[in-house]
Design goal:
single chain; alpha/beta; Maf protein; 6-stranded mixed sheet
Length: about 180
């Protein structure tokens, strides 16, 4: 059986983590993942949990509207939120099918003070990472999480568990 999944982003990290997660969750299906360009409808750098979730949801809904001939639609949005301890980074994943939906959030990690300072000045996290760590386009490769963990966890492997967790309602529709 062939399963078509549309991801509301052309970022190769987001399509890769979606491909891996869907193959793990549905091992007997041939998974075809396509990344498409859709707007998040939120800031380039979402600055709260609520805004980040909304961005993921907007991507999912827009992908479903623009590409209705799929089995699943996925939105992944990275965001940050200030706390007493500093600035935390995370992402939300939302998934829809024609009759079910699921969502999950990644783990969080704290950003270094230099990166926090740039983000507070209005610079997107990926650009701030590139500036601080002398990288180029890190958000489409290992991302902040990869840089800060010395690639023990790259951006795709960081997002993958959240994609799996967002698929729980699809694995157990009778419970949802």
């Amino acid at each position: 059986m062939e399963t078509k999944v549309v991801v509301g982003s052309k970022n190769p990290v987001k399509t890769k983590c979606t491909q891996i997660a869907f193959e793990k969750v549905f091992p007997n299906e041939k998974i075809i993942v396509e990344g498409v360009s859709v707007p998040s409808g939120v800031s380039d750098q979402p600055m709260s949990d609520k805004e980040t979730l909304q961005g993921a949801l907007n991507r999912t809904i827009q992908a479903q509207e623009d590409y209705p001939n799929a089995d699943y639609w996925v939105g992944i949005e990275g965001g940050i939120e200030d706390s007493k301890e500093g600035m935390d980074a995370f992402a939300w994943v939302t998934i829809h099918s024609k009759n079910q939906s699921g969502q999950a959030r990644t783990a969080t990690f704290q950003l270094p003070p230099k990166v926090q300072e740039l983000v507070r000045q209005g610079i997107e996290l990926g650009v701030a990472d590139d500036m601080v760590f002398q990288r180029s386009n890190s958000k489409q490769t290992n991302g902040a999480v990869g840089i800060l963990t010395n690639d023990l966890i790259d951006r795709a492997s960081y997002y993958e568990p959240a994609v799996v967790l967002a698929l729980i309602p699809f694995l157990h529709p009778e419970l949802y």
